[in-house]
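Researcher: Re-running this chain for the archive, since the previous output was lost when a drive failed. Same request as before.
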Amino acid sequence: MGGTDRTRWWPYVLLGLTCLAGWAFKGHCGAYWTDSIQYITGCYSDAVPFWGLRGVAAGQLPYVEARMEYPVLTGGLIWLEGLVTRTLFGPVATAAHFLGVVAAVNALFAFLVLAMMERAGVDRRRLYWWAAAPPLILYLGHNWDMLAVAFAVAALLAARRGHAVNATALAALGTAAKLFPVLLLPLLGLGALFPAERSSVTRRLTAAALLVVIAIAYWGAVNLPLAFGAYQNWSEFYRFSGDRSGTAASIWELLAVFGVWMSSITERNLVSGGLFLAGAAAIVALGWRRHGDRPWLLFTPVLAWFLLTNKVYSPQFDLWFYPLLILTSYRLWPLAWFALGDVLAYFAEFWFFAGMEGHVPAATQSQIALAAAIRGAAMLWIIAASLRQPAPDWIALTPRAGSPPRPDRPRPAG
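Model: Regenerated structure tokens:
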């Protein structure tokens, strides 16, 4: 993608249109919801209740003065967006204005992700898949997960360049924004312990230990000041995650609803955690033969398994998975299958809430199960394919760090 290639801007134009659609989808019903409009039309956004209920309108500092059930970097972003909203709109600022600022900042993160993909030499088709991503329409104004998504993509691309230290730092910061980037850290550690190039045991242990220190240092630098100064509010995210029973489209809630297995919160925590750890270990073991020289490629199937086994599967979690799938999937058509399941699950869950309040359309739990099954089948196929199929061409044609470029192959930018 040379600078003189005018078509290089087309993905950015398309992404702009997608972001406008995402803003229209969430912003069309404003911040004063009546008659379950937030569920019927899908325009629900966490930004609206947070404006008043988490002290954003009053300018309260998260964790210090106000409750916050998000990790520290996300809490800081919420406070900063509240400051921007109050600065721009003054005393007439409302939750609707805050929603607009949240959507605009998330759009900036979406453009950042696209720019990182382009700079890394990702092929044009994949750029278009991100530029037209259905999850961006659904979740651009939903909450603040794009911050962690941007960190996760940056960490993955750093790992692809062979910069394990940078990748670890970025994944640790992503974990301070949302928990899921932590799944990349063990893969980076395994890559240091068992590198493709032979080296001494001491050197490998030292490299892995360095990554552990980097991860702890970056995560700790963000979290420890608030953990010591406002422990109760800082730890709410972890208590809240442990105490939640589940969401409507999670496998554990569906098993309970249909009488297959009634479980307590403690049982769900133990079983879901154990099943995830066992499955993740199996994914890494089975995938190592093909991707052992690039273990970070297994981040995508491990994340898919985490989402499937977790007791909480909020709709916006699909936004975590989609860009990683674009980057690491050998074939792109499974993205359409997954996106279809995402859209179906999104509206099934919100229409279920609408039905609970006596409005239509009203989905049933059987319809939620069907949508979740379509999405889950796509994710299981993706997990299996990621273990069998090679890396996509944009990765495979890029020399590894320290390797001379192949004379018969052009070296992509980045």
